[in-house]
Amino acid sequence: MITVTDLTKVYSQGGRTVHALDGVSLTVPSGSIHGIIGHSGAGKSTLVRCLTMLDKPTSGTVTINGVDLTAARADALRSARRRIGLVFQQANLFDSRTIAQNVGYPLEIVKADAARRKAKVDELLGRVGLADASNAYPAQLSGGMRQRVGIARALATDPDVLLFDEPTSALDPRTTDEVLDLIVSLRTPELAVLVITHEMHVVKRICDSVSLLEGGRIIESGPLTEVVSRLDGRLSQALLGIPPHADLRGAGTLVDVLSSGPETLQPIVAHVSQVVGAEIAIVAGSVEHLAGTTFSHLRLLIPESVEAGRVIDELRRLGADAALTDSLNGTGEAA
Amino acid sequence: MIPLEGTWFANPAIQKAMWPALLETLQMVGISGLATLILGLPLGVWLFITRPGAMSANRTLNFVLSAIVVNITRSFPYAILMIALMPLTVVLVGTKIGPIAASVSLAIAAIPFFARLVETSLRDVHVGKLDAAHAMGSTKLQSITKVLIPESLPALVASFTTTVVTLIGYSAMAGLIGGGGLGRLAYNYGFQRYQTDVMIMTVVLLILLVQVIQWVGDAVSKAIDHR
């Protein structure tokens, strides 16, 4: 379990004070995969660097299974760091070392004996599907394979927390999915996984819970199914966004409706059409299967002849969430 | 026996003096090269790690090392440096003539030169690799010896090759003021006694020497480069 409490990082840049992190708090329990999503400049990189103590946070604490990293110094910090396995966007493997030597590095620096090191390296390379590549050099591997090596290396010290910094941002879509599947397969009850990314796809595919980072603050946070269900939530709009559509002002009233689970299988729009006695068009929508639940977010065009409030009440009565599109913050663009 | 009469090889300066002169040159370059490697590499690493933002950032120390130790030494033309260092040479090795004495000034000229090249080579190591080393719990020494230096080794070998080639050039100059070696041979016989054959043979020998060193350096650099 990793707990971050009120983490701040302030630095000055050309005489200007920048609050890169502005009171970030979050908890990732062991056994779960948590995503932190944000645009460039949101503070993602700073967060990674502060979590691993590559940069010292200005204030706040980072606690891993009860050990406060921010209070540790020198030797204690080095051993505390071994509780976090860090996987970088570009893998950052050592080109001068073979794959086996790369994966064995974290054990080499604690002077683990050669036999134990070899056994661990073999086990890890098997786990990431690269048992044959142990004597190759990183330059001989593809981007996806290098990332697998990076993951194996991060696991070498049996960390309590695995921290991924944009793990798939440099990979093509197919390789991305392979690496994401691998991340999911690493899930154990003892391991807390934290994935920092700007890709919604990553969150949708592997995360149990997610936080939205913006301007150095966590704007929204919660289990994936919960944040997606909030019709006016930023994360819901990002994960289950309405694709762009024609400007329909004047043609009627736009209403957004969000349903999840069994309701998504019900013909609620047709049903509401009947009840209000008007034909309702679906102008745009997105349906996603996330964390085992199907979510549907539709944008409906209500004719002027019908009062939108009635439609909304009726949709809510059927178990969906609905609201006037104009009342939602943003209009369906990504968070 | 091959008849040498009437050829350049009949010249006793070439027959008798060239081989010892070559050995003296190799001795000067060898001793000063080794000293440069032993002292210049740590100095270069030190320059690198004390830079602002680096792992042992220390503005004052970096200024002293970079602006004072390295830049000032490098500002001296070698001919002036070797004369200026004569008193120090006497203290260190007891004499100011001969290849060993010449090695002192050669090393002092080459150490900052090599250190600067080392620093430049180390800068090319991707900062993410050092982040990875630190994040995995490496000590500073481990980051340097197990990551920084191995990762830039091909560039370091190339830098050292450049340094040795430069030392050969300096060693010819050192020869003029008592260092011996090919430089003195070329000066005494080729220049002062108008023996063009000696001059040409010396130049050929130096060209071959530089070519061999560069070739070996390139081959080693390539062999250890796994990028």
Automatic annotation (TrEMBL), chain A:
GO terms for biological process: amino acid transport. Residues 2-240 form the ABC transporter domain. The keyword Coiled coil does not apply. Signal peptide: none annotated. GO terms for molecular function: ATP binding; ATP hydrolysis activity. Pfam families: ABC_tran, NIL. Keywords: Amino-acid transport, ATP-binding, Cell membrane, Membrane, Nucleotide-binding, Translocase, Transport. InterPro entries: AAA+_ATPase, ABC_transporter-like_ATP-bd, ABC_transporter-like_CS, ACT-like_dom_sf, MetN_ABC_transporter-like, NIL_domain, P-loop_NTPase. It comes from the Bacteria. This is D-methionine transport system ATP-binding protein. The lineage of its organism: Bacteria, Bacillati, Actinomycetota, Actinomycetes, Propionibacteriales.
UniProtKB/TrEMBL annotation, chain B:
It is a multi-pass membrane protein. InterPro entries: AA_ABC_Transporter_Permease, MetI-like, MetI-like_sf. GO terms for cellular component: plasma membrane. The keyword Aminoacyl-tRNA synthetase does not apply. The keyword Membrane applies. The chain crosses the membrane at residues 28-49, 61-85, 97-115, 153-178, 198-217. It holds the Pfam family BPD_transp_1. It is found in: Cell membrane. CDD domains: TM_PBP2. Residues 22-217 form the ABC transmembrane type-1 domain. Belongs to the binding-protein-dependent transport system permease family. CysTW subfamily. This is D-methionine transport system permease protein.
